[in-house]
């Protein structure tokens, strides 16, 4: 079980407590709801430093950075029935990744995805946003990602095709903290 904890004092806590205001890649400024702002929280000691925990039903991702301490981020998740569950390893990371919808995505919603069948180059308009962490299981790509988004208002909602989406600023922070080989558990 994960417990809330008040912010630590100091520069790190101050940075985490500031509202996230986005102007890049959106027409209007966007302010993330307070409940989805990054927060330092306590976690049970059974969770080892260096792992990521994702709780899709509550729309949170936890990066455990120290014994019993984690940073909790608000996320958007895949629609029910499409989301990955279980354990995986980050085996690849990309800055401004390119993207191509899966064949299943194109089949399920051709009006939306067929136009992208040849792929979308990385950059501000790419649906994977600023960074992507690619999850693998037993050496095979799960096609499940932790990535940025061009739709910041989707944080705290179930809207995508199964991936975990974060604000671009937040996924950049996470990307810089976690190495390839980081374990991820989606509960």
From TrEMBL:
InterPro entries: LD-transpeptidase, LD_TPept_cat_dom, Transpep_catalytic_dom. Pfam families: YkuD. The keyword Hydrolase applies. Residues 51-186 form the L,D-TPase catalytic domain. This is L,D-transpeptidase family protein. It comes from the Bacteria. GO terms for cellular component: extracellular region. Pathway: Cell wall biogenesis; peptidoglycan biosynthesis. CDD domains: YkuD_like (cd16913). It comes from Stagnihabitans tardus. One of its GO terms (biological process) is regulation of cell shape. GO terms for molecular function: glycosyltransferase activity; peptidoglycan L,D-transpeptidase activity. Keywords: Cell shape, Cell wall biogenesis/degradation, Glycosyltransferase, Hydrolase, Peptidoglycan synthesis, Transferase. Belongs to the YkuD family.
């Amino acid at each position: 079980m994960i417990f809330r904890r008040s912010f630590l004092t100091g520069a790190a806590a101050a940075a985490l407590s500031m509202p996230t205001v986005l102007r890049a890649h959106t027409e209007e400024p966007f302010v993330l709801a307070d409940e989805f702002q990054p927060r330092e929280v306590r976690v049970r000691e059974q969770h080892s430093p260096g792992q990521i925990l994702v709780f899709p039903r509550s729309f949170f991702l936890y990066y455990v950075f120290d014994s019993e301490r984690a940073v909790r981020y608000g996320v958007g998740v895949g629609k029910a029935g499409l989301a990955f569950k279980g354990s995986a390893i980050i085996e690849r990371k990309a800055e401004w990744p390119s993207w191509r919808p899966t064949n299943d995505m194109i089949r399920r919603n051709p009006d939306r995805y067929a136009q992208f069948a040849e792929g979308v180059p990385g950059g501000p308009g790419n649906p994977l946003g600023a960074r992507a962490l690619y999850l693998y299981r037993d050496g095979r790509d799960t096609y499940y990602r932790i990535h940025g988004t061009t739709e910041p208002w989707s944080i705290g909602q179930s809207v995508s095709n199964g991936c975990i989406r974060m604000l671009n600023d937040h996924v950049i922070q996470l990307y810089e903290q976690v190495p390839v080989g980081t374990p991820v558990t989606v509960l």
